[in-house]
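Dissemination and training. As part of the outreach component of the grant, students in the summer workshop were shown how a complex can be specified as a set of sequence lines and then modelled as a single object. The example used during the hands-on session is reproduced here so that future cohorts can follow it. Participants entered these lines:
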Amino acid sequence: MLDMPSEVFREILSRVPAKPLLRFRSVSKSWQKTIDDPIFIRLHVDRQLLKIQHSSIDGVGHLILRGDFDTRFYSLSFESLHCVKPSLLNHNPSYEGSPVGSCNGVMLISESKGNNLLWNPLTREFHRLPPLKGMSKKSRGLYHSVSGLGYVSATNDYKVVKIAQVFDPRDRSLKSETFVYSLKLDSWRRIKDFPFRISRLRGGIFLKGALHWISSTMPLKSMNDLIIGLDLETEDYCLLPLPTEISRLEKPPAKHLGVLDGCLILSCYYQIERLDVWLMKDYGVKCSWIRLFSVSAQDNIGAVETLRPIAYLKCKEEVLLQHDKKEFVWFNLETKLGKKIRMNGRPTTFSSQFCLASLVRLRDIVVDGGSNNAKRLARDKMNSAN
Amino acid sequence: MVTTDEKGPLTAKKKSVIIRSCDGDEFLVSESAAVLSTSLKKILEEKEDRLIHLSDIDNKTLAMVIAYLSTHADDGLSDDLKRSFDQEFVSGKEFDVLKYLVLATDTLQVTCLCYTVAKKMADIMKNKLVEWVRREFDIQNDYTPEAEAEIRRLDAWAWDDRQLEDD
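and obtained this result:
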C-alpha cells in the first residue's frame, strides 16, 4: 500500500466536489474522520470557492429553486449545460419559507412570521434561529425589512443581519433597528443602525467579508442610490462607489446587486428596453467598474426586466441568465445569442438561489454544541403542551 | 546512464546537477530547473555535491517531474504555454501513475505540480464508486456491514449510482 502523507491526501480530497465526498465517507473509518474534520471542511469550502473564480461551476454548486405556488425545493446542477432536470429535494426544512441568501453552502430561509432558519441543502442539516424580539410590524408607518447571511472567517462564524425600518410619511421620520445573529453564540443582538433608507426588499449580497445592499439616501432628500457594505467582522458600515457613467448620465430606474465570478455586479434595468450589467473588477475601486454586457429588447432573449444574471462561464464567454422566473438561458457575450436550457419537471414559476455544495456543519459552529437551541426546543415543547 | 534533459542541453554553459532515481538511473538537470523543487534547492545550498540520490522516486516518475521542472524553468516560454503544458502533462495519465507523481511532488516539494496532479486525481475520483476508491488506495473496509449500511442510508440521496464508474 502506498503510504500517503495526510497533507497530500487532503490536497487531493479537498478538490473532490462535496457530493462524492459524502459517498466517500463510507470508504473507511479514517476517510470518514478526515472528511468530517471541521478544518478539512473549511479547506474544502476555500478550494470550491477558488474553483468558481476559475469559472468552473461543474459540481461546485447548485441552484436551489423554490416554486412560487409550490411548497417544495428543487435542486439544479450544471453537469449538463443545455438540458437539465431539476431534482426534487425529498427533504424540506420549511414549507412556507423563501431563500434569502446563501454563503459557503449554507442558505438563509425566511418565513412569513419573521422566523429564520439556516439550512445546508446538501447535508440536509438545518438550524432554526431563535425568534427576534425587534420592532413590530404594527408600528405606525411603512414597515420594511431586509436580511442577509454572511461568514466571518476570522472567527469561523455565520452571521445573519436583519434591518427593520418604519418610515412615517406624515412627519418623514424614520425608525430603524439593525440586529445581528451569530450562529456561534446562537443569539441576536442589536448593532449600530443602518444609516440609510432601505427601499427595496432584497436579500444582502455577501462578498469579501461584507454584506451589501443598494439603498437610497436618507431621508428622501435626493434619490441618489448608494451601495452600502456592512463588514461582518467589525460590524462597521462603508460606502462603495457606483460606476461614474450611471451616476452622471442616465439613471436607471431599477438596480439590483449580485455576485458574478467573485465580483460585485450591478444590474441596471432601463424599463423594458435594456439591461446593463456592470462588474466591479477590483473590490471598492470606482474606476474598475466595467460594463460586462448589455441586453436590449431587440436581442430577443426575453423580457429584459425579468432577466437576472446567475453565473459567468468566462472560458466560453457565456452568462447564465434566469428569465421570467420560468427558465434559464445561456447568453453568449460575443455573439449576443441566447440558448434556452430545456428543463423537465420544473415548478411553473420559481425563484432561484445559487448555493455552493459544501459539507459545512452548522452544529460544529455553535459554540456550546447548540445547548441553547436544545433548551429552546424544550421550552417550545412545554409552551405548546400548555 | 546519463540522460540529458531536452530543454537544457550539455552545450549550454549553465550549471547542472545529476539526479539519481531509486532504481539507479541518472538524469542531468540544469540547476535552474532543479531549484524549482524546494527540497533540491536546500540540498544544493547545503553541499557542493553535484550528484543527488533520491531513494524513494523511481525512474519513470522522476523523468516526468524533471520534464515538468525543465519546462517551468524555461524563461523562453510564456505563462500561457506553461499552463497548457500543465494541462497536457496530466491528461490521459493513469491514476496509478498520478499517485506516484503526487508522492514525488511531496518529497521534492514542488507545490504547483502537487496542486495540478491533486486536481486531476480529484477529477477522476468524483465519478467513481466507493469500491473503486478502496481498490486504488488499497484500503481495507473497516466498517461492519451494518455500520456501512447506516452511513449509506444517512446520505442515501448522494448514492445515485447510475453514472458512477468502477474502472
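The longest helix of chain A spans residues 38-53. Students were then asked to discuss how this feature might be tested experimentally.
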